[in-house]
């Protein structure tokens, strides 16, 4: 199951309310992040389903013809989205294992991912656990959650998760790096569908009630009826993440530590690591004229051009009706622009 | 006569081969530079004609309905353009004085210009001279030509021009400022139409031959026939500027020194002086979000937005399919982009 929900502000103006990050051609060779995720998932499993918002279903289907899509009637965060996928999978095969992958991340080590996913499926198949993949941190990142384990693991073993740690401050994050007992929570996890549904029933009864109605409709009257029930029940359903609602409270969460060259493509600056740089340190998507300029991240739409002269360490992005220019080191602050657009009532640009 | 020829590279990407600088809404309040020039000219004279290239005639007429336009079949520099206007004016009134104004400059002191123009018309009417307006230089500018006079003039008197000086180096330009005997050549001048045509006949006989044919057609068969002759003769006509071909060699050139808040809008950086700045030193045309950023020149098309965070002293311009970003101090180098577009065969952007 590929989780392709949400709309991003961190890659504005390429990502908009109506155009999610995973459908942007930001992977190597102009592949979309979602397309790359589907391709990687298929190296480990046969059945891949994309769960996405109804208003992005058409664009998603157009970008990935032939891939099964489960459209949610309204965005209600990941507990309900994952529960919905679990309901459908359990209906087909009650003993099946569900693997959850975010749609908008980059992974450089694809063979490593394939073997790690295969191992995680095997763990979740044999034990009543939720098996996560934890990325060994390479810097004291304050933008991610961490998975705490009891002992530093050197090989590709499986360790119990002792705690979920919210985004830390930089001092705390630095102690995590030094200690070797914390891993980045990359949002990838694996569990039997019936284990997921049982955990939701125990920990999120209101969410479970919605899912039970959908499951009953699916069982008794089929997929169309299930979609109709979902459309009716989603608007009033609780909005809570699977991490907060289930993972942090359930028992039997384990983790496989891994490297993998993982990158959440969380800002324009991250594209440097995903796409690499030219001899002057520039990362370029689209037509660009770059004179006396280095270490910039430049992106523009097909059929348009960006020219830069004598500037360094900037992000310069043009997408649709908008342009953004800011230092690479402040790339996260793009969201301030989106906030400001809303404040001014310029939502046409957000 | 307003000289609205040529296509600029210095304000790329707003100015393009097919969209000249004078039609851009760069004056205060979104007025075009050409519109402002016409409005100013009319404060001093009744009859205003715009001489422009045939392929810009429609856009010019649309921008300035009701203004007479004389369209040139091909660009052949200013000697022929001014000669053509002189032919048409002399046909209507053999003793009339022609005033030539560039279409794409900014002038802050409009009452001062009106009185200076009126004075220049009076000088050219009473004496067989070419009367220019010389701008008192405010900095050692190396991008302009200078008019040298014999004595520093303090009031609004008229002085003979001793020499035309080509664009000087910065050391020479500094001595000009110190000496007080050099004025910027702003391309504005006034002379009887028959004096202009006589000078062209004496100094540029090939150009005069073309003009004689057009004049004969105009006299004998009317304006349509004159346009047909022009269309036939222009392609093979010599291309030379009025400054080089006539002004530098003729006798009786005089100058009225003036201030006027003149600006040739020769780069994006110049817009700072034309439009002023906000409290943070930014000059903005169009919708912009500016956060922690100062002393930038930002321009974007209507219905589009530019967002900048944490950058200073930059030019950021989006126009049509192109964006340019460079330091304000290097704004002149925009032409390097245009050269590079040509070198790459990306003429669609130039």
Word description of this protein:
- The longest helix of chain A has 17 residues.
- Chain A is built from eleven helices and 17 strands.
- Chain A has 350 residues and is of the alpha/beta class.
- Chain A folds into two domains: 262 residues, Spore Coat Polysaccharide Biosynthesis Protein SpsA, Chain A (Alpha-Beta Complex); 81 residues, no CATH class.
- Chain A is 35% helix and 24% strand.
- In chain A, the strands form four sheets. In chain A, strands 6-9-7-8-10 form a five-stranded mixed beta barrel.
- In chain A, a hairpin with a 2-residue loop joins strand 16 and strand 17.
- The interface between A and B is medium-sized, with 34 and 34 residues.
- Strand 15 of chain A pairs parallel with strand 17 of chain B.
**CATH fold group of the largest domain in chain A:** Spore Coat Polysaccharide Biosynthesis Protein SpsA, Chain A
User: Numbering strands along the chain, what is their spatial order in the largest sheet of chain A?
Assistant: 6-9-7-8-10
Encode the helix/strand succession of chain A as letters: EHEHEHEEHEEEHEHHHHEEHEEEEEEH
Integer count of domains of chain A? 2
Structural class of chain A: alpha/beta
Q: What overall geometry of chain A do the principal axes of the alpha carbons give?
A: globular
Instruction: Tell me about the largest β-sheet of chain A.
Output: 5 strands, mixed, barrel
Number of strands of chain A: 17
Q: Report mean pLDDT of chain A, rounded to a whole number.
A: 94
Q: Biggest interface and which pair forms it?
A: A-B, 34 and 34 residues
CATH class of the largest domain in chain A: Alpha Beta
| Count of runs of 4 or more consecutive helical residues of chain A | 11
CATH architecture of the largest domain in chain A: Alpha-Beta Complex
Rg over CA atoms of chain A: 21 Å
* Helix residue percentage of chain A: 25-40%
N- and C-termini, Cα separation of chain A? 28 Å
Quaternary status = homodimer
CATH superfamily of the largest domain in chain A: Spore Coat Polysaccharide Biosynthesis Protein SpsA, Chain A
Percent strand of chain A = 15-25%
- Unreliable segments of 5+ consecutive residues of chain A: none
